[in-house]
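Write out a record, fold above all:
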Amino acid sequence: MFFSLEIYYIIWSLLAVALLLSLVWVVWYNRRSMRLLKFMKVEERTRRYLMPEDLPSVSILVFANDDETWLNKFLPTLMSQKYPAPFEVIVLDDASVDGTKDLVGEMMAYYDHLKIVTVPDQTRSLSRKKLAVMLGIKAAQHEVVLTTNANCLVHSERWLMAMMRNFGPGIDVVLGYSHFAHGEDNRLGKTYRIFDDMVTSMQWLLSAVKGKPYRGTSDNLAYRKDLFYKNKGFSKSLDMKWGDDDIFISEISTARNTRLEILPASFMEAHYDDLPHAFGTLKTRRDFTSHFVRHKSQFRTQAFMSLLYYLRLAAIVVAIALAYTNIAVIIMVALILLITWLPSMLVTFRNCYLLHLPLLFFSTPVMVLVRPIVNCYYKIKGLFMRKNNYTSIM
């Protein structure tokens, strides 16, 4: 019939399942967002931080590989940080063939706390990034090292103070936040890249909030030199090209010795000449190293909730297929979709706002549906590229 509530039991069952799964998914999606919001607006502000006169001395390690352009733009913002304690900036030059050395040399004439360390070109059998960081830490004069990359822009002159204020007694690791410069991305798939950046960031940030840190970002990561040496550096993953900010952090971080810093003044923004290509490369690397981190509950939960989302969709599709001529069923399906879509769009909007990402709203239902499929693509792609993740000393 065109409109009738005399609906088959199977259709009522399918609609009930779809409604239940929708409510479960919306509650989970919103609770994650509210947990981060509570941390940012309440918990982080009630912490005890170091006073300016107690801040530690710090060495900022800036990895660079043919990054003359980025260094010319962004290095002055690091050099001019308002920080009451001694700090130095060490550019880790990965055998650049552009004008990186000359540029840093010219800047060293103006900044007496700027140095450069060159990574030998002959050591191609090792992880270039890890080797550069190890050489930088060896050259560092101060007790805390803070890693970043030449293509990263800090928007605040109090970035260093925001990161270092956390190094009170017992704190050895501070995880900072960084996001892609999505405003420079005008290529196809931009919305997906923003959404994926948001979801991925929410995963590791919330894990750290819950006391289970498993990764950081090399764009914005600080730890004590003593802890690095105590862990014997990157020795446990030296056969891997990547992992300096997730496998390593998973090894040294605990709920007690690690803090997450997410004050907007501490944020970093990563710029790339070809952001879509960089996004794909970094995502493939992360998929590989994620197998070796200690805490994997965030990955499992995300996968399970994606499964529920698909089951909900399947129940809706079958219900419509069985009663596509009944307007009552169509109305109930529309209500179920509205119950899921509207709250999830609001949550996505809020998450993007909190993480300083371009604001997303209407695209949320499509992105939630598409992201697991794209993730599968990258995982399959990673299987064929697995050997590329290892050094020749494997």
